[in-house]
Design a protein that fits this description.
Blueprint lengths: L1 E7 L8 E8 L5 E8 L7 E7 L2 H10 L3 E6 L21 H4 L5 E5 L13 H4 L2 H12 L3 E4 L6 E3 L1 H6 L3 E5 L18 H10 L10 H8 L1 H33 L5 H7 L8 E2 L10 E2 L4 H8 L4 H31 L8 H4 L4 H6 L3 E3 L6 E3 L3 H48 L7 H40 L4 H29 L6 E2 L2 E2 L19 H34 L13 H6 L8 H18 L7 H23 L13 H24 L2 H11 L10 H5 E5 L18 E5 L15 H31 L5 H44 L6
Antiparallel strand pairs: 1-4, 1-9, 2-3, 3-4, 5-6, 7-8, 10-11, 12-13, 14-15, 16-17
Helix pairs in contact: 6-20, 7-8, 8-11, 8-20, 9-10, 11-21, 11-24, 14-15, 14-16, 15-16, 15-17, 16-17, 16-19, 16-21, 17-20, 19-21, 21-24, 22-24
GO molecular function, one term: chloride channel activity
Keywords: Cell membrane, Glycoprotein, Membrane, Transmembrane, Transmembrane helix
Membrane topology: Multi-pass membrane protein
């Protein structure tokens, strides 16, 4: 039950001493503080070590309704796994996986302590429970009372906030690379490092019960969710890899790519310029490579994988609810309520709110924020969020303008080298490839810069709103950060998927950015925009994951290495446990917030745009295997031990994941319909082919419209047009120049549009029906868990009833003996 504080003490304390102080709390318990004042490197830092005895722990375990064992679990475990020997390489030793026996538990009652299974009072409460109780007391102890006596200042959080103390944290029980020399110490930190935090344990199961015992339920449930998410990614990665392999194996069956690469077909098709003035005409066969690459991701398997991922998301969320329900029972969180956490005010709220009113729950006077001030702060916060989202959109427009300008510049350079030779491949491939890759890289750099800036802005505007409790603060920050990161990371992908090439116009009547601007809207190449969406997704997703892992692992290690550089020269006997822990990084109350945010953003990449890149789940799987061990390593070795906290779920993130799961069905349906060329190909195959065979021959010629250069309303002055060139082709479905409805959309365009809309409606309805059916079929709580919960509640009532009956019997016997003794004492003695 040890607890460590770091404080700035007066300079004149230059000796080592021990002082015992008893501080009383409203529940009538004392905490014995053992103060160790010891001079540090700067001569001003002193440590205070706090110990909570059994009476304190028992009192507050009663107050907090902490569940403790009262009977060994008597329900047989029938969960035998077929071919259980296959999982042997992935298992950990039993004492690591299940450090405590399985018990039925009930809320602790100090007056009935003999009802519970207490073998040793020193080890009855696990370390996470002990440090949570101590912090609960410290967070509520008053330390100042003003003259009026109605404004008590209390809580270690306020003392930390105003700089009286610099840190407050529980001690680690040992060094992570070696066991403690104390034989009574369990050295759980060493076990966590050995069996959990090492990277070479990546194929092993996680010791979640030990994580929960050492760090508490809130951290335990994060790693449980991350591990479960990684396990489910394995199935998505396998199916995605099969879809990719299918595209690779059907490489030679790609008729439209053969036509593009053919000298007789693609080599004789002259395409209209892709930009004004600086771009020249080009032959279709120079897009041969990109057409083959596009087929790897744009094939029939894409439709199947998009539908599969819509169902996979539902299975993931539903099975997680079941896993979460099981953890709630095993970790005694079934009846856990967060109201106790919600009643604790933030120190900043108490400091900044000068008005006071009666709290109906606690019946105490507490500070409050007037409604007018609250509304004004919320409006200002919302305006700031909108401003920054507008800044992101402006940056995306800037990247689009960059793409257009750089493409025109590259095309101009290549044009000067090739003049009017349409047989040269470089004029198209080099500008297109260079523009796409460099624009994606620049976009990623802008994303990371904006992310760094907005993180600070989000914290400041959330502080400006002055949330009342930490739970409210975290929820407000969650909404702001997720909304910003959603726009920041996904906006470029949304542009490529749903806007690029959709509003182009046609030769002589092109659509331009900013109206009269010279920047013409981008076109998709004949192979479609899907390959460019794939490129964008790979660069942003992979770059974020690699950078995130490097930052998470390297930054804390460098800061700890630099901070402890002087202490490393001291012998072990002079470098105490509290000094070692103080040199580590503080985990902070928002430590898990950033971990969840990182994984939820990744979840968006593999669900919202997965139809364009079936290998995205595989990349996410590889990253998460590393992420689990990196997070475990830094928590075990680079951070101070955080204060244990309870949490029965992943909180607001579960609702965000559910919303993204629904949105992913819509986005993938639109990607297949409008970004991929799957629907136009199917329409051609079944309705517009000019031969009897059911294949894609003639598709390329059918998908390109014809433009007569003499019909240009405004000639491209810098284009050198050969005398023999009268017609050029462009990507669209319009009537030819010799038709009365020339350059208007033809009937095939409307048929394809109807097919796309029909596909979206059918796919969405099919996937949503399957999702709702699967959600209905899979109960949120497993049947065996429901049975165990009912069994536990029944036993609590029965055992408590028997316990009370036995106490009444004993009391009755004592009263009877007392009555008999008193009666014999009062009765006169018979005559002798």
């Amino acid at each position: 039950g040890r607890y460590l504080q770091q404080s700035g003490s007066p300079e004149h304390y230059t000796h080592y001493s021990v002082i015992d102080i008893s501080i009383h709390h409203k529940h009538g318990a004392n905490i014995t503080y053992c103060h160790y004042y010891q001079e540090s490197e700067d001569g001003k830092t002193y440590f205070v070590k706090i110990h909570a005895p059994w009476e304190v722990l028992a009192t507050y375990a009663d107050v907090l309704k902490i569940k403790v064992p009262f009977k060994v679990n008597d329900i047989p475990d029938n969960s035998e796994i077929p071919m259980n020997w296959l999982s042997t390489p992935f298992r950990l030793p039993e004492h690591i996986m299940n450090p405590e026996p399985d018990y039925f538990t009930a809320p602790f009652n100090k007056s009935k302590s003999d009802f519970f299974l207490i073998e040793d009072k020193e080890t009855f409460f696990p370390p996470s429970t002990r440090n949570r109780i101590v912090y609960y007391i410290l967070a509520r102890c008053p330390y100042f009372k003003d003259e009026c006596g109605d404004r008590d200042k209390k809580g270690i959080k306020r003392l930390l906030n105003n700089g009286t103390y610099t840190a407050a944290f529980p001690l680690h029980d040992s060094r992570y690379w070696t066991k403690s020399k104390d034989p009574n110490c369990e050295s759980e930190r060493f076990n966590l490092y050995k069996y959990w935090a090492k990277f070479f344990c990546f194929f092993k199961e996680q010791p979640l019960n030990l994580v929960r015992k050492y760090y508490g339920e809130k951290i335990g449930i994060y790693f449980a969710w991350l591990g479960f998410y990684t396990e489910m990614l394995f199935f998505a990665a396998v199916v995605g890899t099969i879809c990719f392999v299918y595209g690779f194996l059907t490489y030679d069956d790609n008729e439209w790519s053969k036509e593009i690469c053919s000298e007789e077909i693609g080599g004789n098709i002259v395409m209209c310029p892709l930009c004004d003035q600086k771009c020249t005409y080009w032959r279709l066969n120079i897009t041969c490579n990109s057409s083959w690459q596009s087929h790897l991701f744009d094939n029939v398997a894409t439709v199947f994988f998009a539908i599969f991922m819509g169902i996979w998301v539902t299975l993931f969320l539903e099975f997680w609810k079941r896993r979460q329900a099981r953890l709630e029972y095993e970790w005694d969180l079934v009846d856990f309520e967060e109201e106790q956490q919600q009643l604790q005010l933030r120190p900043e709220y108490e400091t900044k709110c000068t008005n006071r009113k009666l709290n109906r729950i606690t019946q105490e006077m507490e500070p409050y924020l007037p409604i007018t001030s609250k509304c004004a702060r919320i409006c200002l916060s919302g305006a700031t969020v909108l401003l920054w989202i507008s800044l992101i959109i402006a940056c995306i427009i800037g990247v689009i303008a960059y793409r257009l300008a750089v493409y025109a510049s590259f095309a101009s350079i290549m044009k000067n080298n090739t003049a009017t030779n349409l047989d040269v491949v470089a004029p198209y491939v080099t500008p297109q490839l260079a523009t796409s890759v460099t624009a994606s890289c620049i976009n990623f750099v802008i994303i990371m810069i904006l992310n760094l800036l907005y993180e600070r802005v989000a914290i400041k505007i959330t502080d400006m709103e002055i949330p009342k409790t930490h739970l409210e603060y975290e929820n407000k920050l969650t909404v702001k950060m997720f909304l910003f990161q959603f726009v920041n990371y996904y906006s470029s992908c949304f542009y490529v998927a749903f806007f690029k090439g959709k509003f182009v116009g046609y030769p002589g009547n092109y659509t331009y950015m900013f109206g009269s601007s010279k920047l013409r809207n981008e076109e998709c190449e004949p192979g479609g925009c899907l390959i460019e969406l794939t490129t964008q997704l790979v660069i942003v997703m992979t770059g974020k994951q690699v950078w995130g892992n490097i930052q998470e692992a390297l930054v804390p290690w460098l800061m700890n290495w630099w901070g402890s550089r002087k202490a490393r020269s001291h012998p072990e006997s002079l470098y105490s446990r509290w000094e070692q822990d103080y040199d580590l990084q503080g985990f902070g109350q928002l430590g898990l917030f950033y971990e969840y945010l990182e994984m939820v953003i990744q979840f968006g990449f593999i669900t919202l745009f997965v139809a364009s890149f079936p290998l995205a789940p595989l990349l996410a799987l590889i990253n998460n295997i590393i992420e689990v061990r990196v997070d475990a390593w830094k928590l075990t070795t680079q951070f101070r031990r955080p204060v244990a906290a309870k949490a029965h779920s992943i909180g607001a993130w579960e609702e965000i994941l559910g919303g993204m799961a629904v949105l992913s069905v819509v986005t993938n349906a639109f990607i297949v319909a409008f970004t991929s060329d799957m629907i136009p190909r199917l329409v051609y195959m079944y309705a517009y082919r000019t031969h009897d065979e059911l294949n894609m021959k003639g598709y390329i010629n059918n998908s390109l419209s014809v433009f007569n250069i003499s019909h240009l309303f405004k000639n491209l002055q810098e284009n050198e047009i050969p005398d023999v060139l009268l017609l050029c082709r462009y990507r669209d479905y319009r009537y030819p120049p010799d038709d009365k409805k020339r350059y208007e959309h033809n009937m095939q365009f409307w048929h394809i549009l109807a097919a796309k809309l029909a596909f979206i409606i059918i796919m969405e309805h099919v996937v949503f029906m399957v999702k709702f059916f699967v959600a209905w079929m899979i109960p949120d709580v497993p049947s065996d868990v429901r049975a165990r919960v009912k069994r536990e509640r029944y036993l609590v009532q029965e055992y408590l009833h028997n316990y009370e009956v036995e106490k009444l019997k004993i009391q009755h016997i004592f009263l009877l003996y007392a009555h008999i003794g008193l009666d014999s004492f009062c009765r006169p003695k018979p005559d002798m």
